[in-house]
Structure formats: structure tokens, C-alpha cells
Amino acid sequence: ITRSIADQARTIRIPVHMIETINKLNRVSRQLFQKMGREATPEELSEAMEMPEDKIRKVMRIAKEPISMETPIGDDEDSSLGDFIQDNNAISPIDDTTMEGLRKSTQDILAGLTPREAKVLRMRFGIDMNTD
Questions:
Q1: Is residue 51, in this structure, part of any structural domain at all?
Q2: What is the pTM (predicted TM-score) of this model?
Q3: Using one digit for the tens of pLDDT, what is the confidence trace for 101-127?
Q4: DSSP H helical segments within 10-92, as ranges?
């Protein structure tokens, strides 16, 4: 039952042995909190669990729950977290408008040439050619 819960409980699957380590870390963390009256540092957890500190930090990172991009932000709940994350691959509206204007100007100029001249310029500069 425990293995099934570990396999299916999270949005992103974490291996069972890591779930067991996370549970052990949480248990030791609670014990140290009761003992010291404050949250334990990774160094203290490392000493108590007899594990390297970098592994403790790794387990702590893995134990964090993912946040949905649809999580409401603010009091009005009209906007979500995804609305505030920048897409670095998207073309900005200004750049897109500029490129469209240049494309239209180029087409207008090429329309004023003879078909042969327009073809030569298109082939020479790769105008209207699909490049992957």
C-alpha cells in the first residue's frame, strides 16, 4: 500500500527509495524541531541522518511540491502564475510588426520588377523561401 501511494501520490513521480528518504528527512526534521525549538539547518540534518550535506540539500529540493501554472495570483484571482512568466522563445509584438512591415515593403518592391528580376532577387537573397 505504501509503495502504491508513493508511486501515484505526486504529479511528478519520485522513486520509492527517494520517497522513503524524504519521509525519513521529514521525521528527523520534526524531531530536531521539537528538540531545538527551531528549524534544523541542512548541516544539523546531515549530522543527525549521517548523510552528506549535499545529498540532504538534494532531497530537500526533490521534496518540494510543484506549483501549478494556473495558481491564482493576488486577491482578485483574475490572473494566474503563468501570466507572469516570460516566454523567451516568443517573438515580441514589436518585432513581429516590424518584420511584417518589411515583408510587405519587400513584396511591393518586387511586384514593381519584371518577373525575371524578381525571381533573381528572390533566389539570391532567399526571399519567400522556407528555411529550416
A1: yes
A2: 0.54
A3: 999 999 999 999 999 999 999 999 988
A4: 16-36, 42-49, 53-63
pLDDT (0 to 100) of residue 131: 64
pLDDT-derived band at 132 (thresholds 50, 70, 90) equals: low
For the record, the C-alpha cell of 115 comes out as: 518577373
The CA–CA distances, whole Å, from 74 to 82, 85, 121 equal 13, 15, 54
Q: How far apart are CA 6 and CA 3, in angstroms?
A: 5
φ, ψ dihedrals at 73, nearest 5°: -115, 135
Give the structural domain span for 118.
93-125
Beta carbons within 10 angstroms of residue 122's beta carbon: 15
Q: CATH number of the domain that 32 lies in? A: 1.10.10.10
Distances from the Cα of 127 to the Cα of 26, 55, 111, 121, angstroms: 61, 55, 13, 8
Amino acid at site 65: E
Q: Is residue 110 situated within a structural domain?
A: yes
- Cβ count near 19 (within 10 Å): 20
Give me the residue label for grid cell 513521480. 13
**Which single residue is written with the C-alpha cell 516570460?**
86
**Share of residues in the chain with pLDDT > 90 (%):** 52
